[in-house]
């Protein structure tokens, strides 16, 4: 039997990756079969010639142990792991083969109960850093837990596949990256339809400053595949970038609207109406003091590297930019919710950092109860005249307690009336619930970000922290009325999930989006001037005379409603769009207008390019490169790379037959 054992060890000892994983597996199985055959022959010989009786040594399972362990190990590894990890498998198998001999030769290694000898000698275990377990009701650290409890939920081998007497180890964790394609949840929506001005001249929507869609799309492309169509929201991709639109002259008017009309890059003879809104800047030293509650998901689903570990590093960055007179609290939730840190002045940074570093994942997800406790803590530490905000950081997987989106939306909507707003930070792939997070942010008078890298955390929580925390205008609504004398058809690009009824514009009880300090917000329409061929054929029975409406020099009339912080009555800004706002060619349009059109083109192509005509990915690159301009943080350069990745990923997609 010695030769067969040596042959088996030789096969397992090949540490270099095998070019053909199946050939490698076949070699291992053949060696195992030869080993087993020889073992059975040896056993038969021993039965024919019995040897003198000897005392049986405990803990020895012989070749049955070897066979069971190797079978279990090979079942728990797929062929990819087998090909790439030959050395690891060899080490496991040889250790299993040698374990009976080691147990016989080192009787002091294990006690009768299976404990390590050191444990039976009362040697203390290795000291771990304190951790606050999910659901702790105070800031006291919990007792150290085995490392395995902090890992993601892992599938175990079925009992029938594990030999009796052997404990199956967990499967290897998946490689970092996107591992749950298709299980993330997004609100389904269709692209805005084309409207005839004669029948539907008015378009109304709520402004949106969220950027979560851009970061999620980037994460998908960086992992080599196109994002789900419903993950692509054009307005969030356009608004991801900062634009140098004209700023307001004073704070009496919190923002200023600028308008540009230019030839459309998508349809011959059509034009684009570009509306850019810029809020006034507020320096960090000038903003009111902040009362912030970090509401952190510490459930088992947050154990991946791009979830809780990234979340903790992100909050560390934000903490470095807060002022000493700001206050931070931490509420965690898993199977239950609890306070990990009571309201603490930011000048006690070491205490806050220690609470952050002690967090560990585990358990189910009682997000609804966590939100309740976070708002209660924010109310307890309320700063009158200051910033009072809950910052929810999660993958959105609420599966315990209140998890009905409508109930959660109603709860945060009621709480916003008390002056406490909500910001949502999304993390991770696989069970990312964008649908719920968008609903919470919109109803909590806050914004939503998706954090896929530490650089994105720096952008959202450091560079743009003023806009994230300090609201300069709330319930901002836009209404555009097109002139039937000059425009026949139009469509709005993006804002599908932010549409409002026409009558909602003047109703101050209807909630809408908020604008933070320094935010730049963009809205883009594509329209067809009267006399040009549109997307729709002319109606045979359209009312006559509609083209004779007044204001023949105007394309449209823009109205913006908003409320100042703390006010309940809205204010109105109006702006006609005339031929004086028009540029003769797209090349002469302002640089920021051209770059935002490139971003809008990218978003539409990712959604299938229903209205982009003959535009290609190369056309998007050309338009963006010519409008890149000043790019101190490299966001626009990164965008060019994402367009290239999208082009490659789109070429690899299966084509319809």
Describe this structure in words.
By secondary structure, the chain is α+β, with helices and mostly antiparallel strands. It has 3 domains: 2-121, no CATH class; 232-273 and 471-533 and 547-652, no CATH class; 290-469, Rossmann fold (3-Layer(aba) Sandwich), CATH 3.40.50. 33% of the residues lie in helices and 18% in strands. The chain has helices spanning 2-12, 21-48, 62-76, 79-84, 86-105, 117-120, 212-222, 234-238, 308-320, 349-357, 367-380, 405-416, 434-443, 454-463, 465-469, 591-606, 617-625, 635-652; strands spanning 195-196, 202-206, 255-263, 271-279, 290-297, 327-333, 337-345, 387-394, 421-426, 448-450, 471-482, 487-493, 513-516, 520-529, 554-563, 571-578. Strands 7-6-5-8-9-10 form a 6-stranded mixed β-sheet, sandwiched between helices. The protein has a 5-stranded antiparallel β-sheet with strand order 1-12-14-4-3. The protein starts with a helix and ends in a 5-residue tail after the last helix. Mean pLDDT is 78; it is low at 15-19, 51-63 and 72-181.
